[in-house]
Q: What sequence folds into this?
């Protein structure tokens, strides 16, 4: 498989899943600031110009974090990355949708991609502040849903690396994580696959989780 990613972005969640699966894949870095995602070669595999993209062994492209995560879980049942019961699987999808759609798409996007929410530069500070407020509110919900469980679905599942990437962004942007999410973040940072991915993406592990 070919995995198109940008270090430190939402693709880190999928990168961790691929590493946890211990399946061979080639990683290609898409340089977003340089506009690589708008170049014809990339648009040919992902006309949405987003990362991540996974090109599977049959040559077909898969986009959207939730869809890639779900496919990786379903297509590799022996890895047990998806609960087998309907309720468990549904709750995992509920978490994926909330993290990617709301925490990332509505919250962190306002902080990292402020000009896409307003053309008026005078509003940028207010947009970023609203993004931060929303992220903090969402973290409260996710914290209560996680409770004292080790992982989102009890056992490790596709939901955990996806929750991890927004916890990682919180660490980088100094947004405080409530206690249960802090414990989850630290638990994830202790996983060998997570450590391998963060090292490959150029992070110094000693500087992460300092506030967690
Ligand atoms: N809904 C997409 C969103 C992914 C997304 O927002 N990726 C960002 C990076 S974290 C991106 O591709 N940005 C491209 C850009 O900024 O033009 C998904 O789930 O894959």
A:
């Amino acid at each position: 498989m070919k995995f198109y990613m940008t270090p430190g972005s939402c693709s880190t969640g999928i990168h961790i899943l691929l590493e946890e699966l211990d399946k061979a894949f080639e990683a290609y870095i898409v340089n977003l600031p340089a506009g690589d995602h708008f170049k014809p070669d990339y648009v040919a595999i992902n006309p949405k110009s987003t990362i991540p993209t996974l090109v599977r062994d049959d040559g077909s492209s898969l986009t959207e974090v939730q869809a890639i995560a779900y496919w990786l879980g379903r297509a590799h049942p022996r890895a047990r990355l998806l609960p087998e019961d309907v309720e468990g699987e549904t709750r995992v999808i509920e978490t994926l949708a909330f993290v990617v759609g709301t925490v990332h798409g509505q919250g962190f996007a306002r902080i990292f991609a402020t000009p896409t929410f307003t053309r008026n530069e005078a509003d940028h500070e207010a947009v970023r502040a609203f993004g931060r407020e929303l992220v903090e509110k969402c973290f409260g919900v996710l914290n209560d849903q996680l409770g004292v469980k080790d992982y989102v679905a009890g056992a490790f599942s596709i939901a955990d690396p996806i929750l991890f990437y927004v916890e990682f962004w919180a660490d980088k942007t100094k947004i405080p994580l409530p206690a249960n999410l802090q414990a989850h973040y630290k638990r994830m940072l202790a996983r060998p696959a997570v450590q391998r991915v963060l090292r490959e993406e150029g992070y110094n592990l000693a500087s992460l989780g300092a506030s967690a």
The chain has a mean pLDDT of 96.
